[in-house]
Amino acid sequence: MSANPLSNKDRMKVPRQAMPEQPAEVRSHNFLEVNQGLNADLAKCEASRCIECKDPGCMKACPVQVNIKEVIRLVVEGDYLGAAAKVREDNALPAITGRVCPVEDQCEGGCLIGKKNAPVGVANLERFVADYERATGQYGIPKSLPPTGQKVAIIGSGPAGLACAGDLIQAGHKVHVFEALHELGGVLVYGIPEFRLPKEIVHHEIQTLRQRGVEFETNVVVGKTVTIDELMQDEGFDAVFVATGAGLPRMLNIPGEHLNGVCSANEFLTRINLMRAYRFPETDEPVYDIAGKDVIVVGGGNTAMDAVRTARRLGAKSASIVYRRTEAEMPARVEEVHHAKDESIQFVMLVNPVEFLGDEKGWLTGAKCIRMELGEPDDTGRRSPVPVPGSEFILPCSIAVIAAGTTANPLVQSSTPGLNTRRGGYILADQETLATSKEGVFAGGDIVTGGATVILAMGAGRKAAKGINAYLAAKKALVTVG
C-alpha cells in the first residue's frame, strides 16, 4: 500500500522542488559546490510527486537499474537510511551519481510525469539519501555472500572499476583495485571539478567500499609496474577487469598547438583537480597564470563546461566556449550549460579554430577561426558543421584549452598478448559478458566504448561483474568436477 497520502491528480499539481544553489556572482569566485542539496522537507515533497507507475520508465532508463520506485517510496515514508541501502543494492556510488548523472537522458527522461510537467528529481533524491547517511555516519551497506575464495583484479579506480568492485565484493569474491595515479577515483577526481563533485564525496564512497572489503593499491601502472599475465600467473588472480578509461586527449591538429598557452582539457583539469591548483597559494599552482587573461575552451561537452567554469574561478578576464555547432547540438548537460551562462561564460557558436597564433617568445596571442554553418547529419545524427568560405577572423586569447574528446591509452593493450583491439586501440569485448579475447580478462567502460558518462561506465562495471561471476562459477565447477 502506498505511503503517499496524495492522489495521483494532486501529485501532478506539486511543482518540482528547486535545487538550492550558490548565487552565481558568489560561486564564480570559489570552488565550493554549486548545488547545495535538498533538505528533508524538500526531499519528501519532491518524492511525493511520484505517481508510482506500474511499469516505471525511470528504472528502465537507468544504466545500473536502481529500483527507483522503491527508493522514492522509502523517502516518502521518511526511511532515508532504508532508501540509501536500497540504492546501494545496485549503485555503489550514489552520492556521486546523484551529482553528475545526465538524468535528463536517463532516469528522469523516462519519468511519465515528465511528459506533461517537470520529471521527478530522481538524482536529487538519490543525492539526498546518500548525503543523509554520510551525515549520520550510518551506512546502508548490502550484505555480501559467503567468501568464494576467488580473487579478481580490477585495473582502474574510476566509475567502471568501482561499480564492478562493489558488485564483486557483494558476491563474495576478494577484490583488489589497482590505480596508476597516487589518488583513487580516476576521472571522478582528476576530471570533474570540486565545485561539481567535491573530492570528499569521492573519498567517502571509496572508503565505504573499503569497509565492505575491497582492497586498493595506488601507484601501480599495469603494463609497466606489473602485467596482466603476471597478475594472473604469479599473483593468483582468477579474473581481471580492465577499466582504465580513455584518457589520451584528442587535439585539433592545427598549426600553433605547440605554443605556450595551448593545452588539453585533460591536462588542464588534472593539474587543477589532482594537484589542487584551486587552493593556490596554499598549494603550488601547476597551471598557467590565468588571472586577468582571455581564455577560450574549444568543445561543447561536459568536460568543456568544467574547464571553462574552472577558468572563470581562477580569475580569467573572459572565459569563452568556442564550438563548431549550435547550442542545440552541444552534448553537455542542460544544467551545466545553464550554470555556465549564469556565471557569465561566453558562448561563441558555429566557430572553429583553424590556427593558433603566437608572439616571438612562443606565447599564444589568439586563435584564427572560421565561421561554420550546419550541413547534413553525420554518423552521430548531428548535422555536420561546414566552413563558410572567406569568414576567417581572429579571436584574441592568451590560453586555449582543447576539449575535443579522448582516445584509448594503449599501455595495457600493448603489454597483453592475446588481447584483441579495434580501431583507435579500444579493447574488444563481448557486448553481454564484457569478456575479451584473453581467457579470464574482461573490459568495460571508456576503454571499450570510447568516452562516455560516469553512469554508463558504472553500468559497464556492473555488466562486467555479472560476466565475471558467471565465469568464476564455471571455473570453480570445473575444478570441483576435476
Which outline best applies?
A: globular
Unreliable spans are none
CATH topology of the largest domain: FAD/NAD(P)-binding domain
Report the portion of residues in β strands: 15-25%
- Tell me the count of domains: 3
Discrete helix count = 18
Assembly type: single chain
**Assigned CATH class of the largest domain:** Alpha Beta
Q: What is the CATH architecture term of the largest domain?
A: 3-Layer(bba) Sandwich
Task: Kindly report the name of the CATH homologous superfamily of the largest domain.
Answer: FAD/NAD(P)-binding domain
Strands of the widest sheet, in order across it, are: 3-2-1-4-16
Distance from N terminus to C terminus (CA atoms, Å) equals 51 Å
Radius of gyration: 23 Å
What is the average per-residue confidence, as pLDDT, rounded to a whole number? 93
E-strand count:
16
Structural class: alpha/beta
Percent in helix: 25-40%
Largest sheet: 5 strands, parallel
